[in-house]
Amino acid sequence: MENSQKGFIPVMLTPFLSNGNIDYPALTQLTEIYLQAGSSGLFANCLSSEMFELTGKERIQAIKHVIKVVNGAVPVVATGTFGGAISDQADFVKEVSDAGVEAVIAITSLLAEENETDEVFNERVFNLLDLTDKIPLGFYECPVPYKRVLKPQQLADFVSTGRVIYHKDTCLDLSQIKEKLKLTAGKTFGLYDAYIVHAVESLKAGASGLSCIQGNYFPELIVWLCDHYNDEAFKDEVQVVQQFLIDNMDVMHNVYPVVSKYFLQKRGLNISTFTRRNVGSFTPSIVKEVETLFDDYTLLRNNLNIKVFI
Asked: Residue 140 catalytic?
């Protein structure tokens, strides 16, 4: 997913009905919002999608639904590894690939236990590559069940196979990101940073774009940042946006994704706040914080003349 322009890859939510079933009409509308905002790709079946709470059949159905709605407008990536024997993980990778994704994403923390060495991890990655034909793969340093961050040289070794084209980075360390970018330069590969705190610096360092939960509140703002991060004419505005995102980190992470679904309700999306994952109570004080966030964002969006579709 290499691109000369910086792009935003939303980590997609899964809307649910009040009875807990996937709400496919809302998923259609949500997908269209991401596209209308200018997203350059979509990451379906990820942690924000509550992938661990979906059945294997639901994962495939949701991925296929997103791909159908997208209709080739942008590439879609999706998670395809959920633990167990590498041969079993390879089988599901093939199933996800057959759904029509650009690349299948491997969860780093599900390829080796927390106490297992990098050597064990590397061996399993190369085994997975061997067992999945020529399917393009990517990595996601998902914090669940634990966070396993790839070392720069590890990532470079995997990318050098020509099979790894995508990486969602959650190391939170700009120096590590710079080293990863240095070692993978010139490859058909894109590193997308999840950590909004150093978004501008990461983009300036050469990251292909951003893939952050903030896009489940205001995707058009993240697209705007990717478009203008290095534009001297918008230098002051870029700093305002970066600071806005930093200042509201805690609000957007608290009882997520309930909070983002509530925010999308306020934007006019017909989506429930139902989640299958137990993330805690959506208290009145949290509601008030999200409503303040909505008001502050509306003001910021108007000041930047950002067009929204809902």
From this structure: yes
